[in-house]
């Protein structure tokens, strides 16, 4: 039986193999740097996801606000007669003279014919702003999740609520939301926003 003795590698080759190996210190430093890089990537990804969600909520809320007030503003501007008060799907009570001209509803007449009207009112049973006409048997939902009961006000040019039916009054619209849609997001502690409100003022184009 023949035994072959391994031929030892040259001293220079052994030294090159030793140089290619990592020491424990180098391995620990490399692992630490890699961990920091991974944590940075994860943090950036989470920040980007949250920023995307916040932007999405803002765009959704803005889109809903535009849809809610565009038709209302147009009808107020072209109105012949405007009345502020309290209303439901089947009734409307105008705010009396000598009392603050504010309420949860506005009734809009496009002409002097008081039998033809458009009514916007907040329905407290489901917290929605609804629109109905004199000839309609059903309503349209304009905005959801409306928390404030006083939606419409008649104001002067300084924003003071009037106590009479002044001809050149400005109609104030205030919508406070406890939740926004598209996407549906709750508002409050622990969520994206503490408060969300839509506020605008509109007046008629033609004043007597």
Largest sheet: 6 strands, antiparallel
- Which radius of gyration do the C-alpha atoms yield? 34 Å
Protein structure class: alpha+beta
Q: What order do the helices and strands follow?
A: HHEEEEEEEEEEEE
Mean pLDDT: 81
Strands, count:
12
Tell me, briefly, the overall form: elongated
What does the model show?
- The protein is of the alpha+beta class.
- The protein has one domain (41-202).
- It has helices spanning 11-20, 24-77, and strands spanning 81-87, 92-94, 102-103, 105-109, 118-123, 128-133, 140-143, 152-155, 170-177, 179-180, 185-186, 196-202.
- The strands form three sheets. It has a six-stranded antiparallel beta sheet, covered by helices on one side.
- A hairpin with a 4-residue loop joins strand 5 (118-123) and strand 6.
- The mean pLDDT is 81.
């Amino acid at each position: 039986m023949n035994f072959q003795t391994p031929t030892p590698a040259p001293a220079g080759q052994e030294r090159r193999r030793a140089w290619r190996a990592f020491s424990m210190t180098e391995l620990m430093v490399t692992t630490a740097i890699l961990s920091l890089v991974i944590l940075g990537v994860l943090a950036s990804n989470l920040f980007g996801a949250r920023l995307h969600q916040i932007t999405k909520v803002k765009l959704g809320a803005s889109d809903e606000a535009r849809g809610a007030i565009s038709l209302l503003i147009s009808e107020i501007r072209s109105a012949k007669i405007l009345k502020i008060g309290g209303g439901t799907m089947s009734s409307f009570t105008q705010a009396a003279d000598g009392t603050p001209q504010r309420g949860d509803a506005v009734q809009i007449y496009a002409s002097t014919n008081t039998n033809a009207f458009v009514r916007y009112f907040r329905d407290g049973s489901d917290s929605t702003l609804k629109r109905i006409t004199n000839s309609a048997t059903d309503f349209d939902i304009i905005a959801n999740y409306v928390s404030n009961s006083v939606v419409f006000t008649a104001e002067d040019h300084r924003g003071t609520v009037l106590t009479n039916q002044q001809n050149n009054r400005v109609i104030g619209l205030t919508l406070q939301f406890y939740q926004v849609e598209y996407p549906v997001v709750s508002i409050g502690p622990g969520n994206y926003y503490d408060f969300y409100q839509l506020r605008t003022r509109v007046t008629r184009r033609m004043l007597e």
